[in-house]
Amino acid sequence: MRRFADLSRALLRAGFAESLAYRAEFLVWILTTNLPLVNLALWSAVAHEAPVEGWQGADFAVYYLATLVVRHLTGAWVVWALTSDIRRGDLAQKLLKPVHPLWVLAAENISALPVRAVVAVPFALLLLHAAGPDRLASGVLPWFAAALMIALAWTMTFLVMAIIGTCSFFVESAYSLFEVWSGLFMVFSGYLVPLQLFPEWLREAGRYLPFRLMLSLPVETMLGRIGGAEIAEGLALQAAWVAVLWLALRAFWRAGLRRWAAYGG
Amino acid sequence: MIEVRDLVKVYRVHRRPPGVRAALRSLVRRSYDEVRAVDGVGFRIEPGERVGFLGPNGAGKTTTLKMCAGLLHPTAGDVRVAGFVPRERRPEFLKSITLVMGQKQQLLWDLPASETFALNRAVYDIPRAQYEETREELVRLLEIGGLLSQPVRQLSLGERMKCELAAALLHRPRVLFLDEPTIGLDVSMQLAVREFVRAWNERFGATVLLTSHYMDDVLALCRRVVVVDRGRLLFDGELAGLVRSVNPDKRVVLQLSRPVAASDASMPGAAIVEHSAARLVLSVPPEALQAVVGHAFARLPVADLVVEDPPLEDVLRDVFRRSRAERESEAAAQRAK
Question: Is B333 inside a domain boundary?
Answer without folding.
Answer: no
